């Protein structure tokens, strides 16, 4: 019974320790040891608490000494206790630098452990102790042993394993360089570790210089390229890389012409153009010089095209970019080529083969494609195709990263978990835009598992909402909202809360929706009241844009109340926030339905003023429709025409919904023309409405009859009597009982043969 009680007590103590509550755990374990002085697990837990409490403590040395004593007490009871020996070795070697022979002895014993992790830690600590004691030969032997152990055992996390292997090779190479004065062996070691890649750009600079020292110009140039691409792109920070460029430049001046070196120089000149005082013409001449030497090498064509592209000299850039792509191309070159080809030819180019390039470079190209190309050249005719292209940039990047992280393919060049995660975010967004929501969800989840950030959760929630997986979306959004203000601005927070509100509403939880809506509104209004004066006009506008989702849910909740009550609710919202564009928009619609056309026009004007250039095409169409129809109903035909013509100009034939708008707008414009006695315009617009029916194969209905009657009336007014009568006959064939058509038939026929006497 006592033994069972001890087990329960130890499990409880360990749970406190795992929670990180070390003072409480130490107090409890000391009490436990009063009654169980030789309990091994209790003694180990006591020592570990003392060790943890030493961190950041002003009495760290004293606490460490106490911890060391406690671990040694454990070894008195259990001389082969591995955890105690590991702690003692680590403390002596990595913290206090004392008792190194004793620590090495612990490590020697631990190398026989059956646990791989324990052996690796022991050898890692021991090689550090050898290094500290100046025993470089044994330190090198331990590094070799660690490298072999890592190679011989399968690891679950290749990214972490590559990072650790890279560190081992770098440390081994530096020992050869600094303590053995053997640069050749150091270079050989660095080369062996390249497959794992190094995280420190300075290591690549060092390798490049070692290779150049040994006259291995191919390797030196290759590594210099990696170094330059790995820099910060800030010449003041990357002084070592600038120095490397000057060395490469000096070699080329000495007549050493090597493509790897030249490629590295191109990279440097492009990234540090201002610091290296190389203007556009000089860089173009540099590229042309190497085009002449290497007419079948894509790199000089690529950089010549890049220089001209960035100066917006598109006609001059196109031949270089096209030649670069024909020779194999690079991802960024393809991005520029697609844009330039479209700018020059007015259509997108066929891409027969996408270039071979790294996952990182395809990610960069995808970002550039979106921000530098797609955002500027996109229009309704090519938007879908551009989206497909952007998706493919990210897909190729994603596939490359995926092969590295999950298929154990490729080298450590793809060992960038955060870039992979960002790629997942952008790729998932593109997939959602294509309507491939299931795939987007999978991609976003993978990205978040690799390197978490709240934007990934936001994008994931978008896909989940589209799939109507509202419960999952709510969980994801709650996780995103839990990020602190260090990551989330208030506008981001409101955006997330709006999506959360929408998901709850979609689950038909009306009471919960109203409760959350009230809470969000209070937070929003308090923020505006407290911080609004500190925000710029643009920041306030952006915040109001994020609030639209919240206001849309409010509108959904108001659907069940009277139009008058809903209108009052939106007026109340305006009292709180006069610049809330959603309130103006909702009031515009409500007043139109209430046939209060003057108020509708005023709200439309205010909405458009507040919204500015950020107004979407759908909203712009609705504004001009409601304002135009309000003016029409008020008899202000000139202003009605102005709005309806703008509405017509925003529409494109082909889409059924757009065709419907086109038809209705043409009929309304025909009415305006009739009222203003602008007969030619009335005829043109009514014919356009009828043509819309014909090309869509729509059944003739009341709207068609209205357009046909307007056409007939305009023809009659312009003395086109035959056309007018023929139109009336056609109407009566379709609708024999149509009173308006019958009325016109009677009146116009009554004029008889002498009706010309009535002509104006």
Please state the average pLDDT score: 93
**Beta-strand percent range:** under 5%
Radius of gyration, in Å, reads: 38 Å
Distance between the termini: 118 Å
In one word, what is the shape?
flat
Please outline the major beta sheet.
Answer: none
Low-confidence parts? 1-5, 752-760
> Helix content range of the residues, please?
over 70%
Number of strands: 0
Strand-pairing-aware structural class: mainly alpha
Can you count the helices? 38
Notable traits:
760 residues, mainly alpha, 76% helix
Polypeptide structure, described:
There is one protein chain. The chain is mainly α and 760 residues long. 76% of the residues lie in helices and 0% in strands. Helix 9 runs antiparallel to helix 10 (183-193), helix 19 (359-377) packs antiparallel against helix 20 (383-407) and helix 34 packs antiparallel against helix 35 (679-696). The longest helix has 25 residues, at 383-407. The protein starts with a helix and ends in an 11-residue tail after the last helix. 41% of the residues are buried.
